[in-house]
Design goal:
The protein is α+β, with helices and mostly antiparallel strands and about 150 residues long. It has two domains: about 60 residues, no CATH class; about 55 residues, no CATH class. It contains four helices and four strands. The longest helix is centred in the C-terminal third of the chain and has 17 residues. The radius of gyration is 21 Å and the shape is flat. The structure holds zinc ion (ZN).
Length: about 150
């Protein structure tokens, strides 16, 4: 199982320009952020995960992205104050759990994916083996069998 955030990239990368009557704020900063988001090509990464999980017999679960970076993976508290200054450190204001902010968010995303998909799916690689055909080529599961030449 692979859990990802169900991000709306189009909404995330909207321009902050505004209009002549109501000009936007922090337009340059937002443009830089948009560039950074799109440099990561989240749409392409998701597209690849979608077809590769099909090939490998895995499950891709897209979870709601709300507050994943502010949620404590240890106790579940949602608090923006746990991300002081938006640095790399996550420090829970309730239970004191500390972690790299990205790692903490990834644990939360995995937990949401498990809840979404049902807990019977095991995310460890050792439980699901990928069968590679003798010729070493992987095929999509739903691909029709090749016609027999006679
Ligand atoms: Zn906590």
């Amino acid at each position: 199982m692979i859990g990802i955030e169900d991000l709306r990239v189009k909404n995330m990368t909207k321009t902050a320009k505004g209009s002549v009557e109501t000009p936007g704020k922090k337009v340059r900063a937002k443009a830089c952020l948009n560039r950074a988001i799109l440099d990561g090509t989240p749409g392409e990464r998701r597209r690849q995960l979608e077809y590769k999980t099909r090939i490998y017999g895995s499950v891709l679960v897209a979870v709601p992205p709300f507050h994943t970076s502010q949620t404590c993976a240890a106790c579940g508290l949602v608090d923006p104050q746990s991300r002081q200054g938006c640095g790399r450190l996550f420090a829970c204001t309730r239970c004191g759990h500390e972690d790299d902010a990205d790692h903490n968010a990834s644990v939360e995303i995995e937990a949401r994916a498990r809840r979404t998909s049902g807990s019977d799916i095991n995310s460890t690689r050792s439980t699901r083996t990928v069968r590679v055909p003798a010729d070493g080529r992987r095929r999509l599961r739903e691909a029709p069998a090749p016609a027999q030449a006679s």
